[in-house]
Amino acid sequence: MSLWRYEARRAGWPACLAAPASLLAALALAAASAGFGASPPSVHGVLLSGVEALVPLAAAMAAVTVVSVDRCRELQLALPAGYSVTLGRRLGVVAGIGAALSVLFSAALRLTGSWTGPESALASALVWASPLLGLTGLALLVAVLGRSVVLATTTVAVVWLCQQLFASALAAGVWSRPFFLFMTSRVGVADGWGTNRAVLAACGVLFITTALLLLRRPERLLTEEEV
Amino acid sequence: MRSRFAAVCRYEFRMQVRKRSLWVSTVGLAVLIAVAQGDRGPRHLPAGTSAAEVMGSWALLFSMLLPIGFGMVLADRLVRDHRIGAASLLASLPTRPGALVAGKYAGSVAATAVPGLLVLLVTAAGEFAHRGDLTLFGWAVAAFAVVLLPGLAFVAAFALVCPLVVSAPLFRVLFAGYWFWGNMLGPAYLPSLTGTLLTPIGDYPASWLMGEKALYAGDSGWLSFLRPEPGGGAALLSVVLLAVLASLPLAFAGPLIARRTSS
Amino acid sequence: MDIMISGLRRRFGRVEALRGVDLEVPGGMFGLLGTNGAGKTTLMRILAGVLSPTGGRVLVGGHDLTTRAGRLAVQRRLGYLPQDLGLYPDLTTQEFLDYIGLLKGLDDDTARRRQIGELLDMVGLADVAGRRLKGFSGGMRRRVGIAQALLGDPALVVVDEPTAGLDPEERIRFRTLLAGIAGHRTVLLSTHIVEDVAQTCQEAAVMAAGRVVFTGPVTGIIDRAQGATWEVVTQGPPPATGVVVSAVGRPGGTHYRVVSPTRPDPAAVPVQPSLEEGYVALMREAVPS
User: Fold this and answer.
1) Which residues, at least 6 apart from B86, have a Cβ–Cβ distance to it below 8 Å?
2) Residue C211 forms beta bridges with which residues?
3) Structural domain boundaries, residue B256
4) Are C241 and C113 in the same domain?
């Protein structure tokens, strides 16, 4: 337990605050929308975007930071604990915060009648879990392959932004639909929703596994400056 | 004083322009934009379309995504000085913090402007191959100056200074979210800055170049006083307002750096 | 824990940092000397399992470091103090050691805390155990570094340039500390400061341009300058041939100590070489300028 506490501190406050900050932004935006006369479905859509779009974005960016920044990396790589396991704990903390907040936020939306996602509890979890896994996995893989924070964060931001910009085209395409991150908030729980969630989650697991396999070579984690 | 500013600017430019990630992200994004722009993109504008409209459309398209990469590149620039121990050395120099920040800012803008301008010139060359209009190159430079450059200057100011307060990782999350909300989220859907004079993707200048509304410029919505009809005057006002806004974070940079160095 | 290295190579892009290193390190304190850029840090990192070799073989206590299992087996018995030890500034000394102890698998809370207390006493940091690492001096940081390296009672301790940048008092203190821990373990001390090796090691190796150019007793390094060390007293410029190792200005003229295979000046007299002069002679042989 104390090791997890240490790793939570190592993940850093910005990484831990990213998810709460993004949900606060969603709340603020929803309040502003309501204040300016937006219809209730629009306001509910914004709130749902908080868990489906903003929390995964925050988790993915935080994951890049966790993998890329460590003052003690050389020492960590020489320890028998295995640095990939240590990083796994830190990523677990970041993902755990995102997951816990998403569950609470979703529950609060249900209680207030603002939930427009699926009814069942498991399916509700997939609203945020699938894009979180997909985007975080992509962020990790690019961070490990490119050994560059800039490359990884740019990739995450561009993928996220392009999916927002071309939402209708991506949701309409047969091949792009399974990879569309914001299916629930932009299209709804329509045909292919389950496949979409499963594909995103599977991609995330695949990306994370590949990244972890790559991390078995310790110098993969040393940046160009450190080597 | 001026020579110190120039020296800081020159070396900042050199450091930034040598960054592999700057070029990789620019080329990657430019290729993505060129390939995945769809049927309504500038690549498919009919023959006979004016060179100003062609290059204005391209500039707007690049302006939507390229600054994302530049913002990510610059986000850890000033924070990095502290991480690698250069901040104390810089603080010990007789150059005033204001000149240092201004030099770093100007050098950073110049470094991100080079790949931005090159991308537009290469695009102009591509368009020239099938349109045969030499003025495309001139309009490429003009489109860069009024559409892309003000956005880069705006992004650079915030990307350099904000991480000193909220940390680079948190800034990157907020920046990605802001970029969508403040530039491309339709104002009819939610209250946003999209379509106002404060839109750094250059909606107003692009509309002026294209002779028609480029994206959302002037659409009715939140802060209606910032949504005049698109045109030359509005485009100029947009560029000026963005420059003024960019100077705000820079004004706080000196004290923020001094506080970090002394803590 | 003995170390056997044969034909070890490591390449970074176009740069070959190690060009076929052959070295045997017995137990006890062993010095690794070399100029900056000789490949010492790369070798230390490979021994610590931080880097993989491009070619060759490294056996530590019989474990092959080119395999993952071998690396892990060595890391379980290793204490490592890297050249650039970054510390987590938000942790106190006690917390930092506790964290590293947990990562080293010291799961028994009582035993771990007792060991941390003993190590803090040993390195003289017990009175700052509750202070955050932010703001620690270079010497204090190195002492935290050696304390973490010794957690778990490792059989092999690898320390990379531990005294660089320290004041004389702190350097002597650190050297004494290192010599004190070498009793029942192998301590590999990498440094470019000749005096550190002279004061602590009986056996040493010297690296130059990615190769080992000397292995053996420290006195063997001194022997390299026998008959090639001279003293010249002159009021004119220093001798043009050879390497000037020291220059002391005195009323009768400047006393130069010079390493040169031939008499550098008609007035030069042969003198007994020091370790530093032996090292200079060795380097001149290994990397002719």
Assistant:
1) B80
2) C208
3) 2-262
4) no
Whether A58 and A98 have beta carbons less than 8 Å apart is answered as yes
Q: Which residues of A touch B167 (CB under 8 A)?
A: 12-14
pLDDT digits (tens, 9 = 90+) for B5-16: 888 899 999 999
Check whether B91 has a pLDDT greater than 60.
yes
| A63 against B35, higher pLDDT | A63
Same domain (yes/no): C129, C187? yes
Task: Identify which of A38, A58, A148 has the shortest CB distance to residue B21.
Answer: A148
- Interface chains of chain B (3 or more CB pairs under 8 Å): A
First to last CA, chain A: 33
Residue A34 has pLDDT above 70, yes or no: yes
| Residue A150 CB coordination number (10 Å) | 25
Q: Using CA atoms, how far apart are residues B140 and B58, in angstroms rounded to an integer?
A: 9
Is the same domain home to C147 and C237? no
Q: Give the pTM.
A: 0.84
Structural domains counted in chain C:
2
Which of A61, A186, A224 to mutate: most B Cβ within 10 Å?
Answer: A61
C7 lies in some domain: yes
Interchain proximity C148–A2, CB inside 8 Å: no
Return the structure tokens found at B72.
């990510």
> What residues make up the domain containing C36?
3-217
C96, C197: one domain: yes
C6–A contact, CB cutoff 8 A: no
> Residue B190's closest chain A neighbor by CA?
A33
Q: Is A4 on the interface with C (CB under 8 A)?
A: no
Q: Which of chain A's residues have a Cβ under 8 Å away from the Cβ of B85?
A: none
**Residue B65 Cα, gap to closest chain A Cα (Å):** 7
> DSSP 3-state helix, strand, coil percentages of chain B (rounded to 5)?
75, 0, 25
**Which ipTM score applies to this complex?**
0.85
Percent of chain B with pLDDT over 70: 98
Write the CATH number for C14: 3.40.50.300
Q: Are residues C134 and C239 in the same domain?
A: no
Q: Which of helix, strand or coil describes residue C234?
A: strand
Q: What is the tally of structural domains in chain B? A: 1
- C194 and C138 in one domain? yes
The model's pLDDT over A156-173, given as tens digits with 9 standing for 90+, comes to 999 999 999 888 888 988
CA distance linking residue A172 with residue C208, whole number of Å = 64
What are the domain boundaries of chain A? Answer: 2-221
Facing residue for B184 by CB, picked from A38, A160, A165: A165
**What pLDDT does A224 receive?**
44
Enumerate residue ranges in chain C where pLDDT < 50. Answer: none
* Shortest Cα distance, chain A CAs vs residue B25, angstroms: 6
Q: Are residues C245 and C206 in the same domain?
A: no
